[in-house]
Amino acid sequence: MVTERFYTVQEVFDILTTNKVTSNIESVRRWLRQGKLVGIAPKSRKEGWQIPHTELMKFLDQRTPNTTNVALDEEAVRAAMWFEITRKNIWEGYIPITKSLLKEAALHRQYSTHLREEVWERCVNNSIAYKQPRVNYLLDAFSFEGQRLKFDLSFASKEEQAIYVIFEYVKKN
Question: Can you give the pTM of this predicted structure?
């Protein structure tokens, strides 16, 4: 036969404080008096309330948000913040794109001339408002065709970090 565990007001308060439900022990007593938290009322002033484990769990389920389905994706949060800042046209700087830079990168990775020309064309279209093609960047990413692309940190210069990512992006799309 299994007997149910009973908690004192102090134990319930400690559990509720740990779960950030309350920071005042009087709230626990008030909820017991109001019937919001079900417990066995004391027969004398010395005894004190007894709260069954099942009732405490029901109360906790009602008072704590359902966080089981919430997954905090740090990268998604960073991306949302990045787009919010860049919508206000706040950039750390820009990287000029030149044909010679594209040619060097294409030779290094043995990309086709056709791909290099397509990358150049899309870079020009990406920066239509500027005389020379360029990509704006902020922190660890840059904007290309309305997308947030992360730098390839395996290269030393910002230009290379962006160019190789653009090549791969154009190749996939």
Answer: 0.58
